[in-house]
Amino acid sequence: MTSPPRATAEPRPEPRPDLSLPPAPARPRRRATARPGLLACGAVLLLMVLLAAFPEPFIALLTHDSGRCELSDARVGPSPAHPFGFDTQGCDYLAQVVRGTRPPLLIGLAVTAGALALSVLLGLLAGFYGGWVDGLLSRLTDVFFGLPFVLGATVILVAFPDHGLGAMTLVLVALGWTTMTRVMRAQVIGVRDAEYVRAARAAGAGSLRLMVRHILPNAVTPVVVVAMLSVGNVISGEATLDFLGVGLQYPALSWGLQLNAAQAYLLDFPHLLLFPALFLSATVLSFLVLGDAVRDACDPTLR
Q1: To the nearest whole percent, how much of the chain has pLDDT over 90?
Q2: DSSP-H helix ranges across 178-270
Q3: What is the pLDDT of residue 160?
Q4: Engineered SS bond to 297: which of 9, 28, 93, 226, CB 3.0-4.6 Å?
């Protein structure tokens, strides 16, 4: 009797290759908002902007400021009614620090905006036309790049002692455009020979249209990132000039002037130095962190 034939094992199907696309990387915006430090810095900057725009409501909310300065209260330390104590003139220090928020922010934003506009213009012209235009603007950039920011501003402001907020802004713009101009020029040189620019030129587009419609939108992003990073440096430079006595002058209020007045009382009355330094450091650090986040979001290698 013959045994039944064995069932042959069916060959196992080979696994099919996974042709599905890998999961898309997190969007830069989501990756940025996932950082709690970035959210904290954004909250700090929002608070500083509100303090600069509407100082009196915050002063009325945070302290019992009568609006008068009594010399008998000079340099008195913090208390529940006056959380920051009093300054050297007997004025409520919290009110003075809050009122000193506006000049640094105004100068920082105005100088950055002015330097950005100038850099975009000069870098666009130098990178697009090349030749003698590029050579002239590049040498001019080298001359200004060799001037130290704070030292050059000190020399100019000492030569013209009667200056205010507008004069300081113009001086800092004149010394703060060089780095952004170099970045803009390099970006324009890399974009001006792209295929879409050649196609637009072949279609009859003029130089102005090529620069404004085709080159500028594709070259300006790295310059904006550098500008975001420079806001904190400008605010720090403005405070340094005020501290050295060549920036804003009394009766103006700014953190640098308050630090200048507090240096003689550091050991006996440290609160005079602590609070304006805290506001200044928090603002500068927040702008730097925000600039780093914008740079990370615009960097294609991190996507």
Answers
A1: 50
A2: 178-191, 195-202, 207-209, 216-219, 221-244, 255-262
A3: 78
A4: 28
Question: Tell me, what's the pLDDT at 11?
Answer: 55
The DSSP 8-state label assigned to residue 88 in this structure reads T
Residues in the chain: 303
In a domain, 115, yes or no: yes
DSSP 8-state symbol, 86: B
pLDDT value at position 14? 57
Does residue 296 form part of some domain?
Answer: no
pTM attached to this predicted model: 0.84
Tell me the average pLDDT across 87-100.
93
Residues 95-130 pLDDT 10s: 999 999 999 999 999 999 999 999 999 999 999 998
SS3 assignment for 123-134: HHHHHHHCHHHH
> Tell me, what CATH number does 143's domain have?
1.10.3720.10
Phi, psi of 270 (to 5 degrees): -65, -20
Answer whether 151's CB lies under 8 Å from 190's CB. Answer: no
Q: For residue 179, how many C-alpha atoms fall within 13 Å in the half-sphere facing its CB?
A: 17
Domain-located, residue 9: no
The DSSP call for residue 71 is G
In a domain? residue 270: no
Question: Lowest-confidence range among 25-29, 66-70, 92-96, 102-106?
Answer: 25-29
Enumerate residues 6+ apart whose C-beta is below 8 A from 60: none
Q: What is d(CA 51, CA 160) in angstroms, rounded to the nearest whole number?
A: 31
| Number of separate domains in the chain | 1
Q: Which domain holds residue 220?
A: 102-250
